Amino acid sequence: MDFLKLAKERYSVRKFEDREVETDKIELVLEAGRVAPTAANYQPQRILVLNTDESLGKLKKCTLFHFNAPLAMIICFDRNISWKHPKTKKEMGEVDASIVTTHMMLALSYLGLGSTWIAAFEADVVKSIFGLPENIEPVAILPIGYPSPDSMPNPMHYQRLEPSKTIFYNRFENI
Question: I need a labelling partner for 74 at 20 to 30 A (CA). Which of 46, 61, 138, 149 fits?
């Protein structure tokens, strides 16, 4: 598939078929996350795969936005491993986890699966319910599955600013 076509057609899926996602597809998505670039290649991402009724039930205690997906992943980073800028001490783990999540979302779409990025959760609740160590920080939840036949992109999905509103060469003008 043409990459730009894939990027334009991918949308946030909020309605899934009641159908299991095949293990080989899960592994391909996880591999896409594994090879994503991270700051200084420290690879601090830690991904929790939720594929049992018990773990998916726990997820429902963490967010209202689970969409009854048959599979979910919580993308986290390890604060003990993530790269910090030596002078500013800026933490790059959240950026790294975001890059990983984006790679995984594109891989999901490529495989005919759908997802949506969930940020509406309290990290402390996720940590408590799933027993995450203090150094593991959740960044995104991806409900995953086959899009329901009546799943549609939000009408706002296709509303994009003109390039001249977001792209500037050499200096910012008329912002």
Answer: 149
Q: Mapping DSSP to helix (H, G, I), strand (E, B) and coil, where does residue 49 land?
A: strand
All structural domains of the chain with their residue ranges: 15-144
pLDDT tens-digit profile, the chain (175 residues): 699 999 999 999 999 999 999 999 999 999 999 999 999 999 999 999 999 999 999 999 999 999 999 999 999 999 999 999 999 999 999 999 999 999 999 999 999 999 999 999 999 999 999 999 999 999 999 999 999 999 999 999 999 999 999 999 998 877 7
The tokens of 92 are what?
A: 């790059």
d(CA 85, CA 54): 39
Compute φ and ψ for 166, nearest 5 degrees. Answer: -125, -10
Sign of CA dihedral 23, 47, 140, 107: negative
Q: Which of 25, 58, 5, 10 is nearest to 157 (CA)?
A: 10
Matching residue, tokens 């759908």 = 114
Q: Are the CB atoms for 114 and 130 separated by under 8 Å?
A: no
Q: What count of other Cβ atoms lies within 10 Å of the Cβ of residue 54?
A: 7
pTM: 0.95
* CATH top-level class of 15-144: alpha beta
Task: Report the C-alpha gap between 160 and 92 in whole angstroms.
Answer: 28
